[in-house]
């Protein structure tokens, strides 16, 4: 083992630890890996940054824009309408339809966008029918993941492995090359969820009242201002009641009955009732202040928070949101989103009511927001906050819808018939969508998840370093020496097992970038076709069901579905094991050695 191989393996090991601990974001770690390889001399500058011009990176960026155009033009609103009409059907029928449609859509559109599109309608149906959201959101996410492996365009992971293959002199994947095996996975997964999974998924029914769901009654208090209050006539910003104590004003009810929003320059008047958010310790501290009377043990409902076009909304933070790893204070939430006030944050199973300004926002968090309806309308289709407490879908413009769907079909057809390479077909599609105003250039830039692109560019250097130094060949030889006597199918099965176990605790793309070069080296060592091994990595990296962090869509549904970590383990583990068995038997049938 050479010094270069030791250096590469050490950098990869450190990267895996950082991916697991999430000390830094995955794109940051990926770029750190790329820079480390260049600084140590493992890769030249040109080799290190080659990931930015890799066909996989370019194709993924273009597909983000195409998916956004489909979403923003309302091209798929008919699917939502159909689901809403099915609300009277049985839970069994609806789950089946939900998984089929999410799977079909995810074969051609980014699966995160599919879940974002369907989640509000699914939650509305759950509320109207009394079906627990937990019974529907997991099938939605799992269906999207299963459908994503049916075509090359289904997930960024598919495109990434194809790009790695191409960079190693191997024929890239065709758009429908994965479809046969992908449909086997999709059909098997749907059958499992309908026949077995639905009995394992917990039934957790949240309160129909949003304020009750977030336990707001325990943290919202009304303060009545009497004539003896010394800060009468001062603004909220100048009042010691708010400068000296940890309280956030939400509303002011004037003595006339008028309800207004409380801002820092709002003046406090005699006989005002100020509705504030604070904890019980703060209440103890202020209860003896002269001139105020506390109204404790309030039983507030959603309608109590309505005034001047304002009401309560639940908003989930999608995986590509700019809010992630920021705080309400650092992004100046009220200035960035005028008319919106964050009242609580639900992170996993914890509900945070106080000290929200300094709480870091994570992907999948649900924000309880009191907001202006006009501002919320502007957020429809936003990449930063997804309104899930109502069915908020873009307005349908039929001319744009027809053109957008035509472009999507044209891109797939041109690439499938190999009239143009996939990256060129995708870029051409983006240009036409912008030229004909299906999506503006500004919306196109915002729709690209730049974190994913930087992550892809960074981790592609990992595969290059493994290949260049011979580390991939060394690892492949070691595996073949241990299992080679059992035949290529057994080694392929081991590759699938290692991949799906890794992707449940680490980024699916990072797992694919690490194992794809090793898969190619295994095939070369055994002198067999590389296709079965590459497909094992591709399928296993995307079919991640055992943890909420295994894939972005699993993270998105975690909080809205009121899931616990063990729910994924109980439902996802048998499914992953079933897929491992099917992959071992069927992949060589579709992709012979």
From TrEMBL:
Transmembrane spans: 6-21, 28-45, 51-71, 92-119, 139-161, 182-201, 403-436, 491-520, 532-551, 571-591
Cellular localisation: Membrane
Pfam (any one): TrkA_C
PROSITE patterns associated with the record: RCK_C (PS51202)
UniProt topology in membrane: Multi-pass membrane protein
Listed InterPro entries: Cit_transptr-like_dom (IPR004680), DASS-Related_Transporters (IPR051679), RCK_C (IPR006037), RCK_C_sf (IPR036721)
Superkingdom: Bacteria
GO MF annotation: an example: monoatomic cation transmembrane transporter activity
Nucleotide-binding is among the record's keywords: no
UniProt keyword annotations, A-Z: Membrane, Repeat, Transmembrane, Transmembrane helix, Transport
Domain RCK C-terminal: 208-292, 300-385
Alphabetical GO biological process terms: potassium ion transport
Gene Ontology CC terms, in alphabetical order: plasma membrane
UniProt xrefs under Gene3D superfamilies: Regulator of K+ conductance, C-terminal domain
PANTHER family in UniProt: BASIC AMINO ACID ANTIPORTER YFCC-RELATED
Entry protein name: SLC13 family permease
Protein source organism: Echinicola strongylocentroti
């Amino acid at each position: 083992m050479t010094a270069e191989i030791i250096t590469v393996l050490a950098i990869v090991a450190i990267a895996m630890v950082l991916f697991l601990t999430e000390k830094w974001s995955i794109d940051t770690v990926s770029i750190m890996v790329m820079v480390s390889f260049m600084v140590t001399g493992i890769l030249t500058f040109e080799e290190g940054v080659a990931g930015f011009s890799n066909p996989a990176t370019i194709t993924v960026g273009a597909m983000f824009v195409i998916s956004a155009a489909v979403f923003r033009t309302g091209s798929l609103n008919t699917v939502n309408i159909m689901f809403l009409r099915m609300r009277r059907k049985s839970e069994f029928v609806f789950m089946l339809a939900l998984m089929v449609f999410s799977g079909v859509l995810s074969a051609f559109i980014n699966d995160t966008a599919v879940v974002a599109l369907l989640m509000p309608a699914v939650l509305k149906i759950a509320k109207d029918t009394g079906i627990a959201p937990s019974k529907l959101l997991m099938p939605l996410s799992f269906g999207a993941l299963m459908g994503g492996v049916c075509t090359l365009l289904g997930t960024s992971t598919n495109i990434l492995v194809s790009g790695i293959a191409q960079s190693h002199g191997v024929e890239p994947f065709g758009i429908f090359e994965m479809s046969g095996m992908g449909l086997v996975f999709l059909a098997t997964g749907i059958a499992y969820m309908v026949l077995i999974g639905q009995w394992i998924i917990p039934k957790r029914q949240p309160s129909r009242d949003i304020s009750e769901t977030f336990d707001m009654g325990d943290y919202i208090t009304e303060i009545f201002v009497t004539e003896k209050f010394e800060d009468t006539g001062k603004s909220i910003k100048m009042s010691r009641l708010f400068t000296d104590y940890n309280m956030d004003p939400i509303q002011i009810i004037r003595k006339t009955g008028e309800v207004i929003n409380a801002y820092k320059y709002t003046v406090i008047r005699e006989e005002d009732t100020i509705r504030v958010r604070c904890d019980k310790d703060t209440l103890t501290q202020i209860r003896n202040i002269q001139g105020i009377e506390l109204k404790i043990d309030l039983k507030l409902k959603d309608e109590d928070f309505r005034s001047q076009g304002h009401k309560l909304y639940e908003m989930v933070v999608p995986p590509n949101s700019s809010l992630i790893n920021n705080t309400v204070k650092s992004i100046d939430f009220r200035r960035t989103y005028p008319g919106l006030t964050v009242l609580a944050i639900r992170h996993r199973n914890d509900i945070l009511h106080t000290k929200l300004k300094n709480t870091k926002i994570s992907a999948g968090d649900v924000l309880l927001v009191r907001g202006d309806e006009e501002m919320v309308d502007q957020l429809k289709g936003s990449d930063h906050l997804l309104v899930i407490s109502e069915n908020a879908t873009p307005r349908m413009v039929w001319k744009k819808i027809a053109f957008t769907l035509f472009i999507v079909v044209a891109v797939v057809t041109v690439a499938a018939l190999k009239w143009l390479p996939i990256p060129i077909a995708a870029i051409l599609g983006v240009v036409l969508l912008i030229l004909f105003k299906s999506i503006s250039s500004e919306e196109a830039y915002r729709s690209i998840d730049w974190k994913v692109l930087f992550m892809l560019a960074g981790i592609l250097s990992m595969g290059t370093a493994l290949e260049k130094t011979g580390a991939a060949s060394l690892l492949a030889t070691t595996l073949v020496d241990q299992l080679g006597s059992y035949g290529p199918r057994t080694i392929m099965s081991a590759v699938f097992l290692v991949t799906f176990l890794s992707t449940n605790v680490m980024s699916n793309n990072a797992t694919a970038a690490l194992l794809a070069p090793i898969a190619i080296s295994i095939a070369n060592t055994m002198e067999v076709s590389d296709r079965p091994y590459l497909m094992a990595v591709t399928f296993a990296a995307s079919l991640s069901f055992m943890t909420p962090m295994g894939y972005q869509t699993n993270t998105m549904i975690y909080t809205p579905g009121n899931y616990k970590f063990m729910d994924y383990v109980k439902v996802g583990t048998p499914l992953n094991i079933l897929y491992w068995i099917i992959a071992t038997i069927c992949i060589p049938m579709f992709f012979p050695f």
